[in-house]
């Protein structure tokens, strides 16, 4: 098997994993971010290291916003940062080297807080559920903003239909 064949198999697996979770009323609004578990995601035993899940969640969050036209670069250029204010994770099952995983994220806005829900799953198992809360901060003054920038509100409206 060639490298091209391996990459093609991985692409097919990721696409099929994405298709496992069909849009319906239960998972409407989820953004799907498929990944393949590589050796650098794991510990010495081939189990995904717990901190890797956080990196995957951030990547999914950034890509979700980017998918509706809001890049973090634009936020920073506008003087806005979105630091994590709170995080809650529950580990259900470990993903392993070679697995295809799907990071699902959904934005639940709450005034000036952005609550992101997550599910990370393999084709057969739920691995992690999480909620990460971000707050908008003035980048220069390092103070909480009392309202979200209009460009971010527009992106939120696209994601949530509000």
Keywords:
alpha+beta; 31% strand; 5-stranded antiparallel beta sheet; single chain; 162 residues; disordered N terminus; Thiol Ester Dehydrase, Chain A; 3-stranded antiparallel beta sheet; 8 strands
Description:
Helix content is 33%, strand content 31%. By secondary structure, the chain is of the alpha+beta class. It has a single domain, classed as Hotdog Thioesterase (Thiol Ester Dehydrase, Chain A, Roll), CATH 3.10.129.10. A hairpin with a 2-residue loop joins strand 4 and strand 5. The relative contact order is 0.19. The N terminus is likely disordered.
Short overview:
The chain has 162 residues and is of the alpha+beta class. It has helices at residues 3-20, 50-67, 72-77, 150-160; strands spanning 31-36, 80-81, 84-91, 100-110, 113-121, 126-135, 137-138, 143-144.
């Amino acid at each position: 098997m060639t490298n091209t064949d391996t990459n093609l198999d991985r692409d097919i697996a990721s696409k099929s994993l994405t298709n496992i979770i069909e849009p319906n009323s239960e998972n409407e609004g989820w953004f799907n971010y498929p990944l393949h578990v590589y050796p650098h995601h794991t510990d010495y035993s081939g189990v995904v290291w717990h901190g890797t899940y956080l990196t995957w969640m951030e990547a999914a969050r950034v890509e979700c916003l980017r998918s509706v036209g809001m890049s973090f670069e634009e936020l920073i250029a506008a003087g806005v940062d979105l630091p994590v204010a709170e995080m809650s994770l529950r580990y259900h099952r470990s993903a392993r080297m070679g697995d295809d995983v799907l990071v699902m994220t959904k934005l639940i806005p709450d005034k000036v807080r952005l609550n992101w829900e997550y599910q990370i799953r393999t084709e057969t198992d739920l691995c992690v559920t999480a909620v990460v809360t971000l707050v908008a901060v003035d980048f220069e003054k390092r103070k909480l903003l009392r309202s979200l920038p209009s460009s971010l509100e527009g992106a939120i409206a696209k994601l949530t239909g509000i």
